[in-house]
Amino acid sequence: MNTPPLISYKHHRYPAVIISQCMWLYFRFALRLSFVVMTMAERGVVVICESVRAWCEKFGRQYARKVRRQRGPMGDALHLDEVYLKINSICQYLWRAVDQEGQVQDILVQPKRKKAAAERFFKNVLGTCQVPRKVIPDSLASYTQPRAEILPDAAHIRDQGLNNRAEISHQSTCLRECRMKRFKSEGQAQWCLSIFSEVGNLFALSRHSVSAASYRELLNRSLGIWASVTQTAAVQ
Q1: Domain spans of the chain, in order of start
Q2: Which residue intervals of 127-211 are DSSP H helices?
Q3: Which residues, in sequence order, are bridge partners of residue 90?
Q4: pLDDT at 4
């Protein structure tokens, strides 16, 4: 595997550790830009909303790619669901695939819910994860033929109750959409939600199922990966 290029922070007034902290607050907690600014001000760092926005646009996708490279193996069950987003008064659909642990494997914003859209989504997901052992979609009929053609060896289980993992994962999207007062374009929604999902996966630690000591260990590991991704480990 090729080593990803280093992120350059040249010609920025603020050091990398401040930029990465603002990015972490924005993408991890679905905060408004103004909330990020106030949080940093409480820590003695004065930044403005436009600076944080520019950093997110410049570094967000680079961070997400490096987080994806460092994530562990995903589960072998593929839970699929789609939810509509209204963008500029036009109905779009957010397709989402999660594994049995609730980790988001991939998302794709598309204008349709037809067979061609389902086929494109399957191909997009398989480009980023292992071949699943079973596929658990909702009741949408568009999944049936593409699944049979692209994943002929995977078990196809259509059960609304078993698909709750994918449906629950949409809750964070609703929160982000509310914070941003709706997405302005299909590209913006794809960009933001893909980064949001990768950072969310990194810090999705299932606190209820582990001991306090194990949780601290997992949290420190995730924070260490974030520091490595943002190249701020040496200045922590």
Answers
A1: 16-70+205-235, 77-193
A2: 144-150, 164-168, 171-179, 186-202
A3: 87
A4: 64
DSSP one-letter code for 229: H
Which class does domain 77-193 fall in?
alpha beta
For residue 235, pLDDT over 70 is answered with: no
Q: Which two tokens stand for residue 160?
A: 């609304």
The pTM of this model reads 0.83
From 86, 159, 146, 85, select the one nearest 115 (Cα to Cα).
Answer: 146
Query: In the numeric block, which tokens belong to residue 74?
Result: 């995903």
Q: How far is CA 199 from the centre of its chain?
A: 6
Encoded amino acid at 130, one letter = Q
> Quick one: 1 exposed, middle or buried, by C-beta within 10 A (0-12, 13-18, 19+)?
exposed
**Taking Cα atoms as reference points, which of 102, 80, 103, 105 lies closest to residue 93?**
80
Q: Which of 77-86, 184-193, 202-211 comes out lowest in average pLDDT? A: 202-211
User: Helix or strand or coil: residue 201?
Assistant: helix
* Nearest partner of 93 among 156, 30, 170, 145, judged by Cα: 170
Helix (H/G/I), strand (E/B), else coil: 86: strand
Do residues 111 and 138 lie in contact, with contact meaning Cβ atoms separated by under 8 Å? no
Radius of gyration of the chain (CA): 19
| Distance separating alpha carbons of residues 155 and 13, to the nearest angstrom | 53
Between 44 and 161, the higher pLDDT residue: 44
Query: What's phi and psi for 82, nearest 5 deg?
Result: -140, 145
